[in-house]
Amino acid sequence: MRPPRSPRPAGSGSPRWKKRPVQGGGREGPRGFPRDHEGPVVIYGYHSVAEALANPRRKPIRLLATENAVARLTEAGLLGRVTPEIVRPGAIDRLLTPDAVHQGLYLEAEALDGPTLETIPRDGLVLVLDQITDPHNVGAIVRTAAAFAVDAIVTTARHSPEATGVLAKSASGGLEHAPLVLVQNLARALQTLGDRGFLRIGLDSEGDASFDESALGSGGVALVLGAEGKGLRQLTRETCDRLARLDAPGAIKSLNVSNAAAIALYVARRAKPLTAAGTD
User: Which of 85, 117, 126, 228 could in theory staple to 222 by disulfide, Cβ–Cβ 3.0 to 4.6 A?
Assistant: First the structure.
């Protein structure tokens, strides 16, 4: 049945949906692959909506747009798969929180199928998020992960923001390029990655070694990031192969988690350039 056409005004801008059971590694899609969200996804803002419409894997359901936004999408050649409903900006304002910057665009779309832990390339670069709950931070991390061609972002189905609304806007189109893998238990997911040969490095200000001096090897690397304030949970720390710190020469030693992710990915990509194709 088609999802409801009147989303609730909520912090995430999420429409109502019918709950699906969580099975295996996360929320399952029609072919057994996990979905990055339960039910329709809300995407707003020009860059986020444009990337979603350009992504053949993203199925649009409903697009609300102002006349100016329609002209912009038409000029970019992005309206082939959906017919927009032309509205005034206030109609979109009522569907979102007062601080949402939608730029005249509001899209409801199907969630994306993602990889599984077993289908991530064995020589891949992976981010693992340990209960990072702020959608702005996670969105910024997703955007950075897309910039550095991360193969997957692993996070828990609970204690993490959903791939919609504020997170999608903060990711600025990154959700279309950095696939999310939702798991039920992070320690077990790390164990699975370890069994597949991934080097699991927990980023911790009290780590024994500096991350930029760490040898990453030729196999897969999983960078594990903890929530601001709490950091990595004890079981997560114990499941990592090593703990490494990001050394900063200035007076302030701690970084916002999204900034830490950007620095770590830059260092990791210099040590592990992209290959022509991953190996499974």
Answer: 126
